[in-house]
Amino acid sequence: MGVSVLKFIQINIYKGQYLDDLMRFLKDQNPDFISMQEVTAGEMNLCDKNLDLFEYFKKELSLNGVIDKVMKPVDSPNGYLGNAVFSKYQITGSKTLVLKTFEDFTLAKFNDFKSFVKFPRNLLSVKCDLDGQKIRAISWHAAWTAPPTDTEETLRQAKLVAGFLKNLKEPFILGCDMNAAPQSRTAGLVNAVANNLMMNSGVLQTNHPKVHKIAPRGFLIDYIFTSSHFKLKKLEVPEVTISDHLPVVAELEFNSEG
């Protein structure tokens, strides 16, 4: 298929807290791919409790998509929290890498800050068809730490993710809320098998400087990683209030030859 330019956005959407502004931003950006975390429905939303945010984005943005419902509270039958991937291109398959499981959650535990470290975690990998060329668009929400710190659990999960990426046969783009700093051993495990677009980007912070739980402390915790098939043309982290995280927007030149 030769060389093409793709736009990829990574964003943790904070359970739809700023849904209208987020939707306007995504429509204006018109991306080819979006990796999302904290996609919710029902009582788990921080917006309209009647919405399923995955279905809402899929319809309003006219994109194909896959949702992995990582958490489903036992006392909220319509609620979930998960990872999603959206694409302008045909989706031909998906795979979930389970990184951590835990006991059934109630809404009370879900909203308890002390429970965050116990949350189950998955990686969602979606296979897309770009005019006959298969690529993987991936969304990952890593183990919780605040402030971001290497722990036995962050390292264990990052090692699993690195192994998964290393064994992929297709070109890939991974967007993630990694909860890890660039200089951490956790990030280093993924750096060893993928191109970290945040390296030497000049970006110092991706948690929102005013509305994130650990503000005003600022950390680079959101990333886009790629296989060698992608060359970065442009990367931006606009300071917009569409979440408690800032979006990472990358324009990538894709060469199927790698």
From TrEMBL:
GO terms for molecular function: catalytic activity. Signal peptide: none annotated. InterPro entries: Endo/exonu/phosph_ase_sf, Endo/exonuclease/phosphatase, GPI-anchor_lipid_remodeler. Residues 11-245 form the Endonuclease/exonuclease/phosphatase domain. It comes from the Bacteria. It holds the Pfam family Exo_endo_phos. GO terms for cellular component: membrane. GO terms for biological process: GPI anchor biosynthetic process. This is Endonuclease/exonuclease/phosphatase domain-containing protein. It comes from Candidatus Curtissbacteria bacterium RIFCSPHIGHO2_02_FULL_42_15.
